[in-house]
């Protein structure tokens, strides 16, 4: 007998076609599921004896769970399933779990040498939050776990998921993982480049803007920044509040080069995917479609639409969730086409969490190509491969912008220490500016988590000690990042490690 399983309620267009001769009770399964109060993305827990746990079903439909973001629901349900497996192996029903059971589970998850998949403090704190929410809803007393109790919370939470890659390491990761190059940095003969332009454009946008995966992954085509900052190399755009963690609109900046790659994707891969979907009639088969009729300007932009039944509607652009954004279409020359920027090969909106699969595939390819074969074990440095995640791009953006801002202050503007203090009083120091770019409410979060490797360093000494003066104000910072990587832990500089081994 296997373990617990989680089945996910699909989106309206994700239901498989049921056989006509199937059971009468499941012929209209989507409407029956909706009548039960389940939403797309909701989990359904199946016990090892193939029964739906009705108590957990009630929890999923409760205000304590149903009001969570979809990605949070997915994370919490996955965490709860692992706990259910552990308790089932002990013959303990989840409602009957004791503090000792949860302590033993924490030891297994975080400390046990026999567990090859141990997790760090940040991951455990998220799991403890999920369990606390479940047991509070179930009114289990005493609570077997409470994330608010110091003893149930990991003190090192928030740091184990942080990862920084230097710019040249990102270039290596993209060349091999997303562009299909070999270890010699030439195109591989067997590489299929069907989504290469899309994937590289998305990663480039993350690195250039510091946007979170959901923020960048839910953009609409007309939200891609177009207006340059004077004659500079950056454009500015707006992140809608419904997509941010703080639920407030935020200005973001992206480089002209990164946005050029996005435009290339729109004109090539995306246009082809849309055309193929139109020819195959995929958009005609969608159960939900809202064709945009107007997008108003101003501080509170609104989008107006008409659905398939001719019913008109509208909403503030900043209030649309990423799920609602997937339903928006524009009228193109060959018929309706998605307003959603990032599309699958089938021409359908690519959900934000789907980017995890793209990164995972790129990581596997880097590991496979950069890990030496048995005959190459004399070169241990080549066994190291860069590992990237969407959030690592945000961490790396923070570090890059901190170095660039200090570079501009100290070299381009030639500020003296006194002038720099005056500048900081007027406009904020680089720490504050990076905090603003990331959208953090507290600069201490920016320092403690995102920029932890360099909080103990004086950035003026970092820049002054670069191996050589770059030809322009920020033309080549590889030497600066190489030195930071050598003198601090947690920052991956692939080329530096290879050069050290040679």
TrEMBL record:
Residue intervals of the Core-binding (CB) domain: 47-139
UniProt keyword list: DNA recombination, DNA-binding
Keyword DNA-binding annotated: yes
InterPro entries according to UniProt: CB, DNA_brk_join_enz, Integrase-like_cat_sf, Integrase_recombinase_N
Name the UniProt record assigns to this protein: Integrase
High-level lineage: Bacteria, Bacillati, Actinomycetota, Actinomycetes, Kitasatosporales
